[in-house]
């Protein structure tokens, strides 16, 4: 939370001077690329002073969790606050994008007294503005002023705050971009991209496309090997778009049996098939106003491809067993790991759907193409994440561990790296990761923690003469058995996603 108390003495300088100096200050702070928290802190402090408010607070939208969170805790009473997006006047401003000016909060039904109760503070007048670059841009957060000295906030205060909130929104976008490029101070709490790590050139090109695509409703096709972050970027597109406060709904085309895909996507009417005892809405309906993420598009059965094409063309569809043509306002993002051109050439994928899906095409680089520096940055990032999660001290890597990480070729990409680091953190109580905590390369013996692995000493006997698909299938089956049928665990131990695992299990005999 960035909350600031105004100076106790009434500001004697003309209001317009301090207002002007605040804008100038903000501009120069931005130019100097200061720490984002410092920027918000200063903005709050000066804002409170310029508008004679007793308090100023900045809330940011955490689109992934669907709530509002305060940025830096300067308020002495509370460390930080998080609240549902729809609660209170701040929530109202965040969801509607409208400025709210209130003379007496206790008489406004939208006012939520929870924070006042917790702090013993009494809110009277309020002025709350959305942080957004313009009327069409997504709301990034809200800036809230409380208890103006002398009289409630007026029209001029409101105009001024709106102008300032626009500047803050620009600062937020800029800082986000810098953080995404790895050049910034690692900022933007829950903001777009703050969970995406990597500063290689290959990734910078991806960030740029994601940013641009997010500003439109164009259908996006994300391509990349397993574990390269397709789901992560799909979500990044959603949380950076104007649809960010609406649902993000995923349909996994691989894990669904073919006969269920259609009803999963478009829903079904009562009596559509045996067991359909009630009408069930499909994922397109559930995603209304938001984004539908179609994972592993290449696995969509051919007979459903035509229906998806129609939906992409005019957003219309029918429920299974229904005759009524329905519509949904949904943005579609697709992902695939497979070679769609080949699938088209082999008649497994409709050419027209292929062109419809790839209006914007984003290729995610394999981790080995991103270079060892990105590997190291990601490793440090995951080490911090898992050290916090497992209550380990501040983590670090020995030089031999780093060498090992930097030299590996990462067939399972970022997911594989994440699992390696998670496991190393679990095995290193002092947070110090050495090469001994990492899996050894194939042929160099078992990883140090293999003894604790569920499969113990299990072996798979594979006769020569099998196809590679068959070898993979048998190996994966053995791992699933060793994990007592737990496919998520098996996928994790194999360093692949569940999708890849399901595909391997379905490989032809
Ligand atoms: N650049 C990144 N920064 C931080 N984490 C990342 C990055 N890329 C991927 N990850 C993490 O790696 C894991 C795998 O990513 P994700 O599930 O998005 O991959 P995917 O390409 O969709 O995989 P699959 O095709 O197997 O479904 C996730 O935990 C994700 O958060």
Tell me the name of the CATH homologous superfamily of the domain at 2-181. Answer: GAF domain
Strand content: 5-15%
What ligand molecules are bound, each kind once? adenosine-5'-triphosphate
State the shape.
globular
Helix percentage: 40-55%
The count of helical stretches stands at: 19
Please report the total strand number as a whole number: 18
Regions with little confidence, pLDDT below 50 for 5+ residues: 1-15, 72-78, 177-192, 441-456
| Radius of gyration (Å) | 26 Å
CATH fold assignment of the domain at 2-181: Beta-Lactamase
Describe the main β-sheet briefly: 7 strands, antiparallel
CATH architecture of the domain at 2-181: 2-Layer Sandwich
Question: Which CATH C-level class of the domain at 2-181 is it?
Answer: Alpha Beta
Oligomeric state of shown chains: single chain
The chain-level mean pLDDT equals 80
Give the class from helix and strand content and strand pairing: alpha/beta
Distance between the termini: 58 Å
């Amino acid at each position: 939370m960035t909350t600031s108390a105004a100076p106790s003495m009434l500001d004697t300088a003309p209001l317009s001077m301090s207002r002007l100096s605040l804008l100038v200050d903000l501009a120069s702070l931005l130019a100097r690329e200061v720490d984002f928290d410092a920027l918000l802190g200063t903005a709050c402090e000066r804002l409170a002073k310029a508008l004679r408010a007793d308090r100023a607070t900045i809330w940011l939208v955490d689109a992934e969790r669907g709530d509002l969170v305060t940025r830096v805790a300067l308020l002495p009473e509370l460390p930080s606050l998080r609240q549902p997006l729809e609660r209170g006047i701040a929530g109202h401003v965040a969801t509607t994008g409208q400025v709210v000016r209130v003379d007496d909060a206790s008489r406004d039904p939208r006012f939520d007294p929870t924070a006042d109760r917790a702090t013993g503070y009494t809110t009277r007048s309020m002025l709350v503005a959305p942080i957004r670059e313009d009327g069409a841009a997504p709301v990034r957060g809200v800036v809230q002023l409380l208890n103006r000295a002398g009289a409630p906030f007026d029209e001029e205060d409101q105009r001024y705050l709106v102008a300032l909130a626009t500047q803050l929104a620009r600062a937020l976008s800029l800082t986000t971009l810098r953080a995404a490029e790895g050049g910034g101070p690692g900022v933007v709490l829950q903001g777009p991209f703050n969970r995406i790590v990597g500063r290689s050139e290959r990734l910078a090109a991806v960030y740029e496309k994601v940013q641009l695509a997010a500003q439109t409703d164009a259908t996006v096709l994300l391509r990349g090997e397993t574990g390269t972050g397709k789901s992560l970027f799909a979500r990044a597109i959603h949380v950076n778009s104007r649809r960010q406060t609406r649902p993000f709904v995923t349909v996994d085309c691989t894990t669904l049996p073919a006969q269920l895909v259609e009803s999963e996507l478009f829903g079904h009417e009562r009596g559509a098939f045996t067991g359909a005892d009630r009408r069930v809405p499909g994922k397109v309906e559930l995603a209304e106003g938001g984004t539908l993420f179609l994972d592993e598009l290449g696995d969509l059965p051919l007979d459903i491809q035509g229906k998806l094409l129609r939906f992409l063309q005019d957003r219309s569809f029918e429920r299974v067993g229904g005759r009524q043509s329905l519509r949904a306002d949904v943005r579609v993002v697709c992902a695939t790991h497979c070679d769609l051109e080949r699938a088209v050439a082999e008649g497994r994928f409709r050419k027209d759907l292929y062109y419809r899906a790839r209006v914007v095409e984003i290729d995610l680089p394999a981790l080995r193409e991103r270079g060892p520096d990105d590997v190291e940055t990601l490793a440090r990032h995951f080490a911090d994440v898992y050290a916090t999660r497992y209550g380990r001290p501040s983590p670090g890597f020995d030089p031999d561990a780093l060498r090992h990480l930097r030299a590996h070729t990462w067939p399972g990409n970022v997911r594989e790296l994440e699992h390696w680091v998670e496991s190393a953190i679990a095995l290193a109580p002092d947070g110090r990761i050495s090469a001994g905590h990492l899996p050894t390369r194939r042929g160099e013996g078992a990883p140090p923690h293999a003894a604790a692995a569920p499969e113990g000493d299990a072996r798979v006997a594979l006769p020569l003469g099998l196809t590679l698909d068959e070898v993979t299938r048998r190996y994966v089956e053995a791992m699933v058995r060793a994990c007592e049928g737990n496919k998520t665990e098996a996928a994790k131990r194999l360093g692949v996603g569940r999708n890849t695992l399901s595909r391997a299990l379905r490989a032809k005999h």
